[in-house]
């Protein structure tokens, strides 16, 4: 009897070991499955975070985005050129303040626009088929919305005091309205979320400045 009992005990013990091993393997299998799901969630979260860092303007764009960036660069450059004239020629304090705001805001935007075009593999200048150097630099792009002609820029540079203030306000209203039109086109036809966001900021910011310039013209 004792021999049989010992045999039975060994078999029960062996069965217990096998059962325990099976449970352990099952547990490991479940852990692996959970790990897989955890990593998948982490990867998805990381992937969703990455595009927001830098890829917004570069990952998804169309021809309208490119045209907006290529056109807004020289448009901003001319606004800065006009604003720099105000530093030494304007007599009105509010004109000088607005000119400073324009220069401060549009300089960084130019760098952003150039960065987008580079990431898109596009030139920073549109191929207009003409040599801008023959037309007085930025002043020669009078065909673009709100852009001043070469003669406009010469006349502005020749003016001083109250005459400059009025000319600057009138020209900047026209210039800003041109930029607003370009930005509205981008919001309607563009694809890049970042470019459309800048367009929205241009519309809001420059519309407010147009209102300020109009009020200045009413009092000078």
UniProtKB/TrEMBL annotation:
Keywords: Signal. The keyword Signal applies. It comes from the Bacteria. Residues 36-59 are annotated as: Disordered. Residues 1-26 form the signal peptide. Transmembrane segments: none annotated. Residues 65-217 form the DUF305 domain. This is DUF305 domain-containing protein.
């Amino acid at each position: 009897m004792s021999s049989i009992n010992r045999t039975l005990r060994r078999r029960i013990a062996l069965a217990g070991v096998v059962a325990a091993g099976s449970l352990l393997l099952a547990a490991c299998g479940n852990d692996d499955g959970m790990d897989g799901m955890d990593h998948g969630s982490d990867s998805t979260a990381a992937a969703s975070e990455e595009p927001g860092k830098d890829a917004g303007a570069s990952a998804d764009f169309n021809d309208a985005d490119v045209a907006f960036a290529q056109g807004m660069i020289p448009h901003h450059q001319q606004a800065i050129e006009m604003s720099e004239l105000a530093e030494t020629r304007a007599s009105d304090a509010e004109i000088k303040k607005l000119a400073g705001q324009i220069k401060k805001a549009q300089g960084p935007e130019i760098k952003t626009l150039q960065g987008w075009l580079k990431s898109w593999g596009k030139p920073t200048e549109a191929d207009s088929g003409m040599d801008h150097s023959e037309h007085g630099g930025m002043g020669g792009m009078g065909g673009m919305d709100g852009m001043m002609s070469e003669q406009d820029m010469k006349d502005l540079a020749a003016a001083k005091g109250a005459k400059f203030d009025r000319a600057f306000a009138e020209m900047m209203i026209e210039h800003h309205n041109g930029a607003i039109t370009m930005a509205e086109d981008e919001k309607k036809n563009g694809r890049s979320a970042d470019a459309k966001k800048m367009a929205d900021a241009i519309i809001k910011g420059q519309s407010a400045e147009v209102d300020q310039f109009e009020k200045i013209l009413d009092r000078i």
